[in-house]
Specification:
13 helices; binds zinc ion; TIM Barrel; eight-stranded parallel beta barrel; alpha/beta
Length: 301
């Protein structure tokens, strides 16, 4: 089973940066990531520039990047206007996000579940006659910083609603890094059984150091698509100072070590990660292999 790596740095990573990442640098990095063998790139987010000033250049980035046929280019959207902008920019896929937690959904997108689903239906009606695919994300699927535990039934119910609406694939997101491997194995097993051949992505955060072990647990339950961010950048507004997404090159390095196929070029990823300071203007990002080197990089005696 080949693992598919989905890069989210230019959306999930950059949106948390304090300093604006120049458009030119975003475009260049995405172009380079397109040559690493990743399955998808979440390019940007078509949301209000007031809500996410870091991604105010969404349309420009999306139209300027080079497209590689083997890569699916994705944009996060929150409403019908976002879907229209994604269509204009020729995105392959849009990602719709609703939190399983009522409180988190209200805080994140200022909508009740009913309001989110109403908007999603309008989006589905608009894109169904186009080639653009739709991925539905259930955020806070493994726990909510306001409500605590999230029931598996609630997650499965929203997955079901997404599929009934005609969404093409599903993501379960551990938005604030609360998942543990036992829980991951159980929920992923259930959802895999529920959705059969529909593609399932796991979006883990390494907020509390359990990111990669959660990947292993999800793989044991049959999952093979993972979101990750170069350098592990990103974050969580509800855990200030915490690390963000699992780190792409650390994930790929682990897969190499355990002999799992992944189709990406680890050396290229490490090289891009080591150049990240030029892009984000800081060198304190969480990636570990970029600092320690690969296990196979032996030292001279
Ligand atoms: Zn994330």
């Amino acid at each position: 089973m080949d693992v598919k790596i989905q890069e989210v740095i230019s959306r999930d990573g950059f949106q948390m940066e304090k300093e604006f990442v120049p458009t030119e640098k975003k475009v260049q990095l995405i172009n380079e990531l397109s040559e690493t063998g990743v399955h998808k790139i979440e390019v940007t987010s078509f949301v209000s520039p007031k809500a996410v000033p870091q991604l105010k250049d969404a349309s420009e980035v999306a139209t300027r990047i080079n497209r590689t046929p083997d890569v699916t280019y994705v944009a996060l959207i929150a409403n019908l206007r976002g879907a229209e902008r994604a269509l204009d920019a020729g995105m392959d896929e849009v990602n719709l996000v609703m939190s399983a937690s009522t409180t988190h959904n209200k805080k994140n997108v200022n909508k009740t579940h009913e309001e989110s689903l109403f908007e999603f239906q309008k989006i589905m009606d608009t894109v169904k006659s186009t080639k653009m695919k739709v991925n539905g994300t259930v955020a806070t699927a493994f726990g909510c910083p306001f409500e605590g535990d999230i029931s598996e039934d609630a997650v499965q119910q929203y997955v079901n609603t997404y599929l009934k609406m005609g969404m093409n694939s599903i993501t379960l997101a551990d938005t604030t890094g609360m998942a543990n491997p036992v829980q991951v194995k159980q929920l992923v097993s259930k959802v895999k059984e529920q959705i059969g051949d529909i593609p399932l992505t796991l979006h883990f955060h390494n907020t509390r150091g359990m990111g990669l072990v959660n990947v292993i647990a999800a793989m044991e339950a049959g999952a093979n698509q993972f979101d990750a961010s170069l350098g592990g950048i990103g974050g969580c507004p509800f855990a200030p100072g915490a690390t963000g997404n699992i780190c792409t090159e650390d994930l790929v390095h682990m897969l190499d070590e355990i002999k799992v196929k992944h189709n990406t070029d680890l050396d290229k990823l490490i090289s891009l990660s080591s150049g990240l300071t030029e892009v984000i203007g800081r060198d304190d990002y969480p990636g570990q292999v970029v600092k320690a080197g690969k296990v196979s990089d032996l030292h001279t005696v």
